[in-house]
Specification:
Layout lengths: L9 E7 L4 E5 H8 L5 H7 L10 E8 L5 E2 L13
Antiparallel strand pairs: 1-2, 1-3, 3-4
The structure holds zinc ion (ZN).
């Protein structure tokens, strides 16, 4: 499992089942949840700002130091258009 502290330089992209896509800096999540929290726990806790449900379909960990590169979630398709 991936802890937030191990990806603190990255951003987390959350894809809701309603189609909403949100991007959150992992550093911001660490401020709220702490570095020992796992990414999957954040997925479960995250609430969509559009439909107000917790229906995260999938997430991506992206590195924002330069090119947007998917690191480890296994989802590399680019269908994010709404954030
Ligand atoms: Zn939603």
């Amino acid at each position: 499992m991936t802890k937030l502290s191990s990806i603190s330089d990255n951003h987390l992209v959350l894809n809701c089942r309603c189609g909403h896509v949100g991007q959150i800096a992992v550093a911001d999540l660490i401020e709220v949840y702490g570095g020992d929290v796992e990414v999957v726990a954040v997925e479960r806790a995250a609430r969509c700002s559009r439909c107000k449900t917790k229906n995260i379909a999938r997430s991506q960990i992206i590195y924002v130091g330069g090119s947007f590169e998917a690191l480890s979630s296994g989802h590399t398709e680019k269908d994010a258009k709404d954030w």
